């Protein structure tokens, strides 16, 4: 089955659009490809890209690599004409590769996962005397058999000293390379120093420690002479970067087109045989209530984290002849990307959901861009380290033409350029926006760009501001819409 976007939840949309009456949300459907073709997803072969290595050969760079997504690099970077001067960039990226979340591990895994010498670092730092140079404290997970509650949640990876999740050594290496690649492109264009200048550079993280872990590697590559950088963070109560602010309306919309809709549950029914095979290996019960059968998220994270870290696919701890085969894992990976395409692009109300759930961050972005246009900010570069749950709704708001599950290190770059006044300009302010995805101008379904073809490449920044206003509204309008 290929999803048809034109009829999904048409009547429901009318009710929910009233939540944001000051906006004019228009859903532009994505391309129809093998990614959102359920027949191919269930019966096809192969994966959407690379799931077993951070390394992508130069001649294939730009392809989907779940373990280490393509980002801006000097080798592929397209420099605009000399009529444009880069004034500001804002980057939002997903963290790099990690161990799986504890909730995505089997009750008992058949392989070990050792993190000796690597792991989260936690300690306080002050400004006076010895407080300025405290001993570094690195966490190492452990269990004790005398604790009677240890096995109540399952051993997972037996005897592991890892946190689940934590950024792996490979993920830290990828973070460093990511930072170094960005430095190679933007040092001269933005006149960056080898040390981070808090007046011109900002970095922001979430309360999840893995974003700070990635920032450490990233900054080492980006500003090699910096050893101490302050990272901005918002409280979970209203954090726009993780979209953890309260928005009941968004939750209701999402539930309506997923759990309460046959358009969503159809693929779960059709994949019953796949679940059976996976459950035989994992030991997950058919009547599980922890979400293993409401989407493929749990299995996807479990299998992809292992393969990205060069670990074997799992076998049953009760019958070692029962294993997840590569074709079965590939099917899980196709299903995961199908689900994210449905969540954020295929479902008719997905644009509305994304606008409500991630609109606050986009309003902050617009504020940063307007400060540059008005000449009221010295900041040249703002970097956000976030999650797939951050990039996905942002891609939904931008209405990317081909939606994937954003892999490790995925990156969206907003480049703001000023055009030389001696050249003709179709921008009132003379400022233009280029949005990069995977290091290249993003192809969307929006009526922007050359011949309204949707390519976000040097569009007048006013067009972007108008689109955001029509889609998200003002801050007070977004807040009010969320509460209805």
Describe this structure as you would to a colleague:
This protein is α/β, with parallel strands linked by helices. It contains 13 helices and 8 strands. Strands 1, 2, 3, 4, 5, 6, 7 and 8 form an 8-stranded mixed beta sheet that branches. Strand 2, helix 4 (209-222) and strand 3 (231-232) form a beta-alpha-beta unit. Helix 8 packs across helix 9 (326-346), helix 9 (326-346) packs across helix 10 (350-374) and helix 10 (350-374) crosses helix 12. The two termini are 34 Å apart.
Looking at this protein, list some descriptive labels:
484 residues, alpha/beta, 8-stranded mixed β-sheet
Derived structural class: alpha/beta
The count of β-strands is: 8
Number of helices: 13
The string of secondary-structure elements, in order, is: HHEHEHEHHHHHHEHEEEEHH
What low-confidence regions span 5 or more consecutive residues with pLDDT below 50? 1-22
Mean pLDDT: 93
The multimeric state of the shown protein is: single chain
Q: Tell me about the biggest sheet?
A: 8 strands, mixed
Molecular shape? globular
Per DSSP, what share of the residues sits in E-state strands of 2 or more residues? 5-15%
Distance between the termini: 34 Å
Radius of gyration: 23 Å
In which range does the helix fraction lie? 25-40%
């Amino acid at each position: 089955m290929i999803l048809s976007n034109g009829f999904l939840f048409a009547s429901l949309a009318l009710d929910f659009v009233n939540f944001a009456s000051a906006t004019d949300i228009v859903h532009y459907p994505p391309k129809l490809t093998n990614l959102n073709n359920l027949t191919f997803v269930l019966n096809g072969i192969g994966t959407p890209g690379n799931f077993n290595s951070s390394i992508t050969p130069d001649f294939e760079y730009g392809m989907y690599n779940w373990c280490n997504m393509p980002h801006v690099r000097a080798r592929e970077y397209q420099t605009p004409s000399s009529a444009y001067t880069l004034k500001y960039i804002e980057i939002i990226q997903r963290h790099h590769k990690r161990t799986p979340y504890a909730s995505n591990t089997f009750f008992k895994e058949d392989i070990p996962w050792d993190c000796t010498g690597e792991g989260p670092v936690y300690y306080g730092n002050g400004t006076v005397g010895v407080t300025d140079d405290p001993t570094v404290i690195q966490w190492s997970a452990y269990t004790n058999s005398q604790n009677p509650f240890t096995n109540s949640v399952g051993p997972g990876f037996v005897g592991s000293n890892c946190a689940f999740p934590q950024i792996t050594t490979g993920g830290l290496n990828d973070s460093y390379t990511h930072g170094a690649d960005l430095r190679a492109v933007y040092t001269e264009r933005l006149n960056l120093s080898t040390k981070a200048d808090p007046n011109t550079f900002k970095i922001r993280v979430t309360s999840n420690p893995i974003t700070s872990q990635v920032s450490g590697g990233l900054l080492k590559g980006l500003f090699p002479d910096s050893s101490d950088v302050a990272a901005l963070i918002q409280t979970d109560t209203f954090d726009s970067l993780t979209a953890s602010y309260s928005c009941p309306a968004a939750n209701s919309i999402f539930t309506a087109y997923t759990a309460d809709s046959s358009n969503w549950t159809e693929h779960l029914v059709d994949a019953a045989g796949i679940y059976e095979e996976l459950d035989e290996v994992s030991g997950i019960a058919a009547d599980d209530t922890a979400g293993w059968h409401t989407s493929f998220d749990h299995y996807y994270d479990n299998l992809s984290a292992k393969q990205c870290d060069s670990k074997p696919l799992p076998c049953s701890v009760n019958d070692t002849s029962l294993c997840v085969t590569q074709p079965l894992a590939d099917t899980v990976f196709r299903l995961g990307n199908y689900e994210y395409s449905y969540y954020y692009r295929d479902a008719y109300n997905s644009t509305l959901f994304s606008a409500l759930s991630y609109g606050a961050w986009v309003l902050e972005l617009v504020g940063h861009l307007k400060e540059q246009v008005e000449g009221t900010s010295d900041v040249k570069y703002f970097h956000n380290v976030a999650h797939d749950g951050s990039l996905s709704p942002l891609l939904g708001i931008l209405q990317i033409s081909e939606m994937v599950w954003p892999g490790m290190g995925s990156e969206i770059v907003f480049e703001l350029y000023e055009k030389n006044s001696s050249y003709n300009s179709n921008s009132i302010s003379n400022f233009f926006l280029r949005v990069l995805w995977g290091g290249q101008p993003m192809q969307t379904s929006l009526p922007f760009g050359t011949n309204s073809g949707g390519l976000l490449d040097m569009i007048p920044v006013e067009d972007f501001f108008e689109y955001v206003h029509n889609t998200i509204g003002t801050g007070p309008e977004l807040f009010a819409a969320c509460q209805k």
